[in-house]
Amino acid sequence: MTERALRPLTEEEYLALERESPLRHELLEGFPHAMAGAGLDHNLIVTNLVALLKPLARAKGCRVYSETVKLKLSEDTFYYPDVMAVCGPKAHPLYETSPCLVAEVLSPNTEVQDRREKLSRYLRPPSLLGYLLLESGRPGGVLYRRTPEGFREEALEETLVLPCLEGTLPLAALYEGVA
Predict the structure, then answer these.
(1) pLDDT confidence of 1, banded at 50, 70, 90?
(2) Which of 74, 146, 164, 175 might form a disulfide with 139, Cβ 3.0–4.6 angstroms?
(3) What are the phi and psi torsion angles at 166 (to 5°)?
(4) Domain assignments of the chain as residue spans, ordered by start
(5) With 50 as the cut, is the pLDDT of residue 102 above it?
(6) Which positions ≥6 away from 122 have C-beta within 8 Å?
(7) What span, in angstroms and rounded, lies between the C-alpha atoms of 46 and 104?
(8) 100 pLDDT above the threshold of 90
(9) Distance, CA of 103 to CA of 7 (rounded, Å)
């Protein structure tokens, strides 16, 4: 085993690590953290959300990404959101920087991180109009929607009115096929 000094990685070192590693890592303040695997229901919710968002994004000239695309939030912080919608030019061949919508599917292993750490960081980009947290064990969740006064927390109802992509999604369709 090779010894190395414990220090924050630079952006270049992190991107090189991700190119070579069989595991994905998120980078938090320069330190890489291996990502946990996801269950079947988690994957179905992500797939359903992408399928529902894609036509809305296409109509507005936007892109929808899922799980394997990095979001750079600062020089030393990168995440892999479960889903993100981006309008405007691509930021970089390996990551995006200006999402209008970010979604995470909660799981017991990630819920605290998604509700605290990621919440405080995801709400920073001026481009972000909504941060969507979806429950994995039952239909439901919360949307943090940008308003002129700041972000407002909205519990999900039967129909989700989306920010930025200007459409609606039936909550039942997001959870189609989920046990």
Answers:
(1) very low
(2) 175
(3) 55, 55
(4) 37-174
(5) yes
(6) 73, 79, 81, 102, 128, 131
(7) 8
(8) yes
(9) 30
DSSP 3-state of 101: strand
Full-model pTM: 0.90
Least confident piece of the model among 16-20, 36-40, 142-146: 36-40
* Two structure tokens written together for 96: 């995006």
How far is it, in rounded angstroms, from Cα 115 to Cα 25?
19
Under 8 Å between Cβ of 178 and 166: no
The SS3 assignment for 19 reads helix
Whether 156 shows a pLDDT value over 70: the answer reads: yes
CATH for 37-174, among 3.40.50.720, 3.90.1570.10, 6.10.140.1670, 3.90.25.10? 3.90.1570.10
The whole-number pLDDT of residue 108 equals: 80
Q: Are 132 and 114 in contact (CB under 8 A)?
A: no
Helix (H) or strand (E) holding 17: helix 11-20
- The continuous run of DSSP H or E covering 172 comes out as helix 171-174
